[in-house]
Amino acid sequence: MQKIWQSAITTFLVTIASSLPAWSITAGNLSAPTVKPIADRPKVALHKTTCLRLTYSNGSIVHAGKLWLNDRGMGRITVKYFNPDLGRQESVDQTIRSENTPQGILLVGSNPIYSGTRRRIPTYSPDSFLLRIDENGRRSFFTFDLNRNTSSVEVSSC
Questions:
Q1: Which among 27, 68, 87, 109 could disulfide-bond with 126, CB atoms 3.0 to 4.6 Å apart, if both were Cys?
Q2: pLDDT digit string (tens) for 72-130?
Q3: Which of 98, 123, 121, 101 shows the shortest CA–CA distance to 111?
Q4: Is 11 helix (H, G, I), strand (E, B) or coil?
Q5: b/e map 12-47, b = 16+ CB within 10 Å
């Protein structure tokens, strides 16, 4: 059952990315997402990774993320945004895991750290995402965090 669920997550993300025009995305190149076998790397289990670019906001601050999710429903996201308190761009890495819920596929972020380090960011609330297609075929993809910030998400392929 777990293997079927893991495959369903990857299939769902590929379906989202391959139907990008239906999501009213304004990205230039709307090709299918990159699905790369990583068997060429030594000592790595055979699996596929899906990469998607995500754009969303926290108030007036736009966040640009790159989500990598493998066929086991685990992955990571790197998010870049402008921090007005510091007057510069910041980059955050988070771990992502997927969960099957009655409302759709939940992607749960955790452990936000400064990109390229192991240092936690105490002020950054982990990002979570909900992907769903309702019974009428309406698609929705949005993000929320522990501080009750919510936003719709635009998707494009990497």
A1: 109
A2: 889 999 999 999 999 999 999 999 999 999 999 999 999 999 999 999 999 899 999 99
A3: 121
A4: helix
A5: bbbebbeebeebebeeeebeebeeeeeeeeeeeeee
